[in-house]
Amino acid sequence: MKFHWMDRGRLNNPQEIKNLANILDKYKYYSLLLTYHSKQDDLLIKSLLAADNNIKLKFMIAIRTYSISPEYLSMICQSYNKSFTNKIMLNITSGDIHLDETSIEDIPLFKEYFDTPEKRLNYTEEWTKKFIEICSNKYLPELVMAGHSTKTRLMANKFNATHLAMLDMHFKYIKESNIIVNNKQMVSLSIIIRNDIDDAKDFLLKNNTAGAENWTLIGNKEEVKKEILNLNKLGITDIIISQCPNDDQIHLVHELIKELSE
Fold this sequence. Notes:
The relative contact order is 0.13. Helix 3 (70-83) packs across helix 4 (117-134). This protein has an eight-stranded parallel barrel with strand order 1-2-3-4-5-6-7-9, surrounded by nine helices. It has helices at 14-26, 43-50, 70-83, 117-134, 150-158, 167-173, 197-207, 221-233, 250-261; strands spanning 2-7, 31-34, 58-64, 88-93, 142-146, 162-166, 185-193, 216-219, 238-242. The longest helix has 18 residues, at 117-134. Strand 1 (2-7), helix 1 and strand 2 form a beta-alpha-beta unit. The mean pLDDT is 91. The protein is built from nine helices and nine strands. The protein is α/β, with parallel strands linked by helices.
């Protein structure tokens, strides 16, 4: 099982990314996901400035397919790989547009091809096919495809990508009759570790949004460890973790991940 860390846009400069990368590498994480938001600075460039061949950790960069051509992203990946070998992964998304974004309005032509989630999803399939074709006989980064639609799951298997879903959404999906089993399945979740389960529950209640209990593992180290191992038995190959707000004991999570990774 591989463990990844998700940063939700809190890192502002390459040095902050580098500092976090060094910490995560120490605890044996496989990658650091840097998320996408059109109103924030580009994190692909910042990750390049933070990259280091002396550590194993990879940077997983979220890419919305309508925002860049397959050709140009392939060029970037080849250049990146020449300086930092096998250090980049791509989180391919069709693009859920945040309320404060104007991504579709900012496309100068052909907006009608991207103005619905279904259209962006169809484009993502063609985009990914072309990207892999262009990267043929070149460096092809590991691909992660995020989304809860059946089409996204089918694409992940088709393109040998890891499928990414929220923990609660994945469990809801596998109860359906016509499920698609992904060969490489990543789930997104949070973890709270405390010696006392009531302390963990109280922290979750006071510091997280409604519904967080559906995607958060809580308990002491051994209880959470058991839950993670059970996820592995259910076919989960990767787990990506995001920090619960205000958790000043996140080192307990990191220590558990190191133990599991070793």
